[in-house]
Protein 1
Amino acid sequence: MDNSPGTLRTILEAARIVAFTGAGISAESGIPTFRGPNGLWRSFSPEKLASPEAFADDPRLVWEWYDWRRQIIHKAQPNPGHRALAEMEGRAVGRFTLVTQNVDGLHDRAGSRNIVKLHGDIWQVRCTACAVQEQNDQVPMDPLPPRCRCGALLRPAVVWFGEALPADAWGRALEAAAQAQVFLVIGTSATVYPAAGLVQVARKSGARVAVVNPDPTPADQLAEWVLRGAAGDILPRLL
Ligand code: OAD
């Protein structure tokens, strides 16, 4: 099997492509990742900040953390990695799906369109009582915690530990992974399930897997191409 980067480039010109991204693609935009030496989970406890129990205990504390992250993201710009994926989609309209674990919205801002957001969107809020879910771009958030027109607390429309992924997004991701001919695993530690299981689904369904990451991940063993380096360097070169 020819696993040179040139072959990957050729395949990308015609194949059904899924790009599966994680926090690493936004690292070069200055947004902290979760794991690793400077990762958010080194300084913060997921149970205390990103779980339904934490929100029930102290909604203000949880919102302060999300507001802090929203402020960082608000100042950030999409980087060459995000832009390369938007361009790849432009060349492969109808055969390209971006499945992301990121909630930061930088893929949208870079111009990607066919996006499946597995872990929600930090710029959306959802009522804890009624059916309201809406965009909220206020930075900083005021008041904190915010309330719905119905009076109940609003929460970030993101997936917390112990919660299921949004069913429609998960369904679309599974279908895209099963139909992919090339599955790009970009900037993710590939350790958080069920999302990480998409790599196996794609592989078992016959996709050729490529990993883009400066560090080893469990997805490497399923990959024909392991491209070591920053997404912002490697993805523009793949085009
Ligand atoms: P992680 O923080 O677990 O992993 C980030 C990955 O990005 C690591 O493998 C890094 O080596 C890699 N990386 C760092 N800089 C990079 C760069 N410039 N280019 C490419 N890769 C780079 O983040 P995720 O895999 O996204 O879930 O984490 C998955 C989920 O765990 C998140 O969506 C979040 C978290 O808890 C929820 O909040 C539900």
Protein 2
Amino acid sequence: MGIESEKVATAAIHAGQEAESLTGAVIPPLHLSTTYLQDGIGGLRQGYEYGRSGNPTRDALQTQLAALEGGRHAFSFASGLAAEDTLLRALLAPGDHVLLGNDVYGGTFRLISRVLGAWGVTVEVVDMSDLDAVRAAVAARPPRVLWVETPSNPLLRISDIAGLAALGHGAGAVVVVDNTFATPALQRPLALGADIVVHSTTKYLGGHSDVVGGAVVLADDALAERIGFLQFAVGAISGPFDAWLTTRGIKTLPVRMRQHDENARAVAEFLSGHPAVARVYYPGLPDHPGHDLAARQMSGFGGIVSVALASGEAARRFAESTRVFQLAESLGGVESLVNYPDAMTHASVRGTAAAVPVEVVRLSVGLEDADDLLADLSRALEA
Ligand code: PLP
């Protein structure tokens, strides 16, 4: 029997991580086998038959993910977008409508508009942080799926998960929250009323910029069966080593998130006092429009800080001038990264309603010493 707890720090380390029975190895082994011996035809040992349908290393991660988010079921995928694709195909049929936040991750918008769009799904974007705007959009055209990303990428808008869940459920929608930015260490959407949580585990859950992955977590048994069937039938599973690395990363998630949060606050405060900076987007700052809501629904403000400079040119120059903040896509690793959304992560939504202003630069604040981070930013802003 494993060590059980509802506390995130304990679940992160122990859920799905029982010591191996043969040797007592404290770290469960990495199972690479693609197939499993049958004791007579159909005589499966603990249900394992073939690597696409089940693998003990992936199962251990899925148990860990479900415990962290307070769900009953979790599914681990080859990437965040593979998780989103399988989930949406389990939820939607041709003719269905999706209501999406207007600054969600660009790839989510691209997946729904360009891939599922060709399949007869329609999408509309709305400011999810404005409940009245969402209420009007839901009344005008009831969606099958209400897709919430909070804090959003890259403008850190905060949306009211409990309010949106009530609104969505009133219209018969399934409410999905992309919890990639906050992680379950800081925000538990299922407890706030959401139906489903999705993750790009590539980011904070993996935490070391060395493994791409995604996850879907939920409580509903019938829906979980549909997602499980599609995961098996379509096959976008995480590989065993990817699952093992993600599990290893998750064990330190709560302690990493505390430090990301502390460093990001220092960065946000430093940038808000700098004359070259036009605006800082960080929900931990008291003047952020979502600050009070974030303080209620999150237990920290996370590690992403976005900043608007005077012009697109100034923003590009700043993004190319930092050294400790390395210029690269992605976020959530131990190392600090700088990204210019308009031409990098969000290039696919340029010119659409989900476009990111050209003045904006996104910082993924890592775990280096805060003094070095501030010195780097100061130098780059002067350049
Ligand atoms: N959701 C968010 C908030 C993201 O930032 C990303 C990737 O940047 C994704 C989903 C997609 O995840 P992946 O890149 O693992 O497919």
